[in-house]
Amino acid sequence: MDLSAAKSALKKYFGYDTFRPMQAEIIERIYEGKDALVLMPTGGGKSICYQIPAITLPGTTVVVSPLISLMKDQVEALRATGARAAFLNSSLSEVEQRQVEDDFFNGELDLLYVSPEKLVSQNFIPLLKRAAVNLFAIDEAHCISAWGHDFRPEYTQMRFLKGEFKDVPVIALTATADKLTRKDIISQLKLREPETFIASFDRPNLSLEVRPGQKRREQIIRFIQKRPGEPGIVYCLSRRSTEELAEKLQDAGIDAAYYHAGMNADERTKVQEDFTNDNTLVICATVAFGMGIDKSNIRWVIHYNLPKNIESYYQEIGRAGRDGAKADTLLFYSYQDVMVLQDILKKNESDMLGLKIAKLDRMRQYAEAVGCRRRILLSYFSEDVAEDCGNCDVCKNPPKAFDGTVIAQKALSAIYRLQQSVGMTTVIDVLRGSGKREIMERGYHNIKTYGAGSDIPFLEWQHYLLQLLNYGYIEIAHDQHGEVKLTPASRRVLFENEKVQLVRFATIKERQKAEKARAKESAKPQRVRDELFEKLRKLRIQLARERGVPPYIIFNDATLEEMAATRPMTDEEMKNISGVGERKLHLYGSYFIDAIIEFVGPASSHGKASTYQVTFDLYQRGLSVEEIASKRQISISTIYSHLAILYEQGYEVALEEMVSPAEVDKVLKSLRYLQEPYKLKDIYDYLGEQVPYHRIRLALAYGKREEEKR
Ligand code: ADP
Ligand code: ZN
Q: Is residue 616 part of a domain?
């Protein structure tokens, strides 16, 4: 087997033109009959690494996966591509199991998914021996290691594979494994001369943003309202807060539900299924939500609270944008969260507490970072990145440093005079000259720095103190009720006039303003979420409901985006869209082509995209509309419609020569009185049959482009 077979299967079954980094090497290695360990981030494309060998090699690939709830979806998704796949686990009846086993034995399966329990069960091994297995793929392979975080005892029994099936290659795959876990996987599975493939953990399609945790609910509502129709998850710390937030979102008219481990299994399944099928758009959940979801079109993830460590954070945001299309992540952060998490850790964990606190601290540093966040994340995973990413809030809005020496001196001096015996809040209260009873009672209003920073709002002070903490100018004694302490560095500021650079505090309003300004100036094509995309998305939901499958199994968001952007109108063009393989073209292609043609306009009912190009070429050569029509044997009105579409798409078409400003004005004004979607006939009637159809079409094109300019 060679790579060209792999490549054509990639196109035929999955509709993709090229392999992602490492996929081809891994597949080649399997073709050579060798073992491999694959480390790729969630959404990185691990499955293709064994699915392509499974489809192209004679025999069946046995995939071991611990997530029974996912198997059905995975198999369904594979079948939709035309691959022959089935699964065996405890959810099947005896009869169903027998059927699958027969198919397996008769060589009628490309892939067989099994649970680890099934694989190691006594009666399954003889069956494995009789069938023709070409590859064992061990998914979520970190479960084999007690070092990992999801240890599964059944996994350790799989060591027999290499002994019993000497010539069958084994590929172990995981998204999370530190060095120790990797070593463990290799030795436990007894992999022979395995090559380890570690893909980049970068997920450039995920934007990263951290905001101060003020007015979180309002911010979340605004965030969601800006993204109509886009599925997303809000992770909350407590069960109660998932319920409360979901209710608040519902009050704001948002289609939200909650999910946590305290619900019964049926309720949880229902919520999860509704989300998978795009019936519910927003889930407010504890971190219990996610392990079992394989939804590729999650467009955003919000963390209501700070996660415990960077591993969890990265895994949770990693659930967004698995289809490769743009997705946004937002983390709310306040110092309060850190304190709460520390308390939880101290209460619950006795072993490795130090390590856990240190990990939390790294998480806090990430949230407070004033450098590119992606670099921080990737460096945490030992990946060296030379450049800033351009897709995090820090890159997009670099913080401005200023001379904060005076501010630092005021704060440090207050801490000094308070004898390093109070927490952060009291320090700020004193600086701001608060009249709180406890301040008065303790006599803090007599301190010299009392009120010295009353010009700076509380939250801003908090922000500066955090920076002083990060730069080592102060410390927090966690073992002494969070009292703020001075350090050697603070003495240099207080007594040796050392200069301190601070980063300006951008209030939420300022941030939003800056964001708006940026959105205006950057004319870069953002996500293609236009009317056509919406139309295609609705079509996808309809087709999915009729067939009883999750929508993303039909096409994923990235594929719909590409359709919306390039508007394929023939089978040939449709085939070129990434994600459209042969079977899906056959099953769904015509529905989407029809929808696009209908959207693009009545004139091109059997249009080919390139037909516009031909018209445009002739037009550019100076031919009149009548001449183009006669040369092309197409009606004049069709040519006008081509020109209108070309104009809409930004081509240079002298519209003003074909329709007068007065007519444009009339047509556009008429829209105010008509219902969307506008039909040409309605406009024609409304204008008393005075403006011919083709000029209405041109006027609309003018209006559309003007609107886009705005
Ligand atoms: P993982 O198992 O690593 O989490 P998947 O195998 O589910 O990731 O792949 C994530 C997404 O990327 C899927 O939608 C998949 O179809 C897509 N994908 C995988 N390989 C390619 C490729 N070579 N080109 C385009 N898309 C790909
Ligand atoms: Zn960045």
A: yes
Which residue type, as a one-letter code, is found at position 490? S
Residue whose C-alpha is closest to residue 37's, from 191, 255, 232, 161: 191
Range of the domain at 411: 401-503
Longest dimension (CA), the chain: 95
Mean pLDDT value across residues 435-450: 92
CATH code for the domain of 414:
1.10.10.10
Mutate to test the pocket of ligand 1, among 19, 46, 48 (most ligand atoms within 8 A of CB): 48
Domain count across the chain: 4
- Asked if pLDDT for residue 605 goes beyond 50, the answer is no
Closest CA to 552 of 588, 600, 595: 588
| Rounded average pLDDT over 605-625 | 73
Q: At what angle do helices 353-368 and 458-470 cross, to 10 degrees?
A: 120
Confidence of residue 249 (pLDDT cuts 50, 70, 90): very high
Ligand 1 atom nearest 139 alpha carbon: 2
Q: What is the pLDDT of residue 614?
A: 76
| β-strands 501-503, 401-403 pairing | antiparallel
Which ligand 1 atom is the nearest neighbour of the CA of 175?
A: 3
Q: Cβ neighbours of residue 363 under 8 Å, at least 6 residues apart?
A: 306, 307, 308, 309, 310, 313
- pLDDT at site 607: 45
pLDDT, tens only, 45-86: 999 999 999 999 999 999 999 888 788 888 999 999 999 999
CA–centroid distance, 20 to ligand 1, in Å, is 9
pLDDT score recorded for residue 672: 83
7 and 96 housed in the same domain: yes
Question: Where does ligand 1 bind, in terms of residues with CB under 6 Å?
Answer: 14, 16, 19-20, 23, 40, 42-48, 296, 322-324, 556, 578
In 3D, which of 363, 41, 283 has the Cα closest to residue 177?
41
Residue 509 domain-assigned (yes or no): no
Quick check: is 521 in a domain? no
The two tokens of residue 351 are 């072993």
By the 10 Å C-beta count (0-12 exposed, 13-18 middle, 19+ buried), 129 is classed as exposed
Q: Which of 164, 180, 198 is the last residue of a domain?
A: 198
pLDDT at 187: 92
Q: Do 347 and 437 share a structural domain?
A: no
Could you give the 3-state DSSP secondary structure of residue 371?
Answer: coil
**With the CA atoms of 388, 393, 399 and 405 taken in that order, what torsion angle do they form, in degrees rounded to the nearest 10?**
-110
DSSP H helical ranges for 318-404? 335-348, 353-368, 373-380, 393-396
Q: Which of the given ranges, 120-129, 244-253, 368-377, 660-669, has the highest pLDDT on average?
A: 244-253
Task: Assess whether pLDDT exceeds 60 at residue 351.
Answer: yes
Question: Do 277 and 308 reside in the same domain of the chain?
Answer: yes
Q: What's the CA-to-centroid distance between 206 and ligand 2, angstroms?
A: 11
Residue 19 within any structural domain of the chain: yes
pLDDT at 383 over 80: no
Q: Are residues 588 and 497 in the same domain?
A: no
Ligand 2 centroid – CA 396 distance (Å): 7
Read off the tokens for 124.
Answer: 């399954």
Q: Which two tokens stand for residue 664?
A: 């444009």
Q: Ligand 2 centre and the CA of 373: distance in Å?
A: 5
